[in-house]
Structure formats: C-alpha cells, structure tokens
Amino acid sequence: xSEAVVKPLRxxxxxxxxxxxxxxRDAFREHGVQASLDDIAKCAGxxxxxxxxxxxxxxxxxxxxMREWAARVDADSEEIVHSGLPADAALAAWFGRFxxxxxxxxxxxxxxxxxxDDPASPIFHKCQVLIxxxxxxxxHVASLGALREGVDPREVMRLVSGVASVADQSxxxxxxVGPMLRIIVDGILSGSARS
Length: 195
Known about the structure:
- The protein is mainly α.
- The protein has helices spanning 11-31, 37-44, 48-54, 58-65, 67-81, 87-102, 108-115, 124-143, 153-170, 178-188.
- It has 2 domains: 11-56, Orthogonal Bundle (Arc Repressor Mutant, subunit A); 67-193, Orthogonal Bundle (Tetracycline Repressor, domain 2).
C-alpha cells in the first residue's frame, strides 16, 4: 500500500511546512514526541493555525518528521542483508540499529508500536517500512539456514520494539541494550547458528 499522492504546496506554504518539520524534529529530539505543538509553531516562526492546517494531529506531524527516518531504516536493512556478516552478527547489528532508529525521538518507540496494527494512524505507513525492513533481515537469516522454525518476523519486531521502549522509558543509551538484544538473537537462532 502506498501513501496518498499529495498536491504540491505553494512556495510560501512549502516553506512554512519545511520550517515546521525542522522545528518539530529538533523539539522531538530534545523533548520527545509529546513536545508542545504551540512551541514548535513558535520556533518555526508561524502561528498555531498554520501548524494545524498542515498537521491536523500530532501523529500527522510525527509522520512528516519520520519520512527521512523511514528511508534510512530501509537502507540500514539492505546494508545488513548485503554485509556478509554471519547470522548472529547480522541480527545483533540490525537489532541495535532498530533500537537506535526507533529511539531517535523520545516516546517514538511506543508510538510506533501502537500504530503498527492501526491503518487509521498517520504513522502506520512508517510502521510498515519498519516491518518490511525487519522482515528483510529475518528472511535473510532464514535463507542462511540459521533461524529456528516458527519464528515470525512481526513477533520479533514486537520484542525488539519492547526493548526499544524500555530503553526509551528508562533513558538507557542504545549501547546498553546489547544484553537484552542478545537474548532475542539467541532465542531465534537455530542451535548451530548461535555463537
């Protein structure tokens, strides 16, 4: 399913849109996805009405901020698949990037997890990119004969998202989640593929 085609904006409206997305990106990094929308509008140099014309809901603004993110997530999965890494190292590297990617904005991990099965959510399509990227890596590991039978990529994604949410909620550095991710890696690899 592809995202809806959007009519191009007038030049002044596009500038305002871009300023709002840039201001939101900065605010979400500093204050999390619950940052004040009024403060975002103020930082962008526009009124709240302009913000809500472009982004009727917070999720619409999160979706716009995450467009670049989605492209990077897909590129990360491609890089892992073509890296030549053994299965355990490929999974560990992918899960680490996954946690880092969903944790870039405070509170984003929980938003993504909640929107994963909600087609009405504006960020549903970003979740589908993440699901596809994760499946690509899991399918690659399966093609190496290193995955236990019955492993569902979507359930693996929920587990790794849970780790990302724990890291986000507790303020853990992405590097500190390695031991938790290792448990997932060891749990989904076939016995012969574990290091």
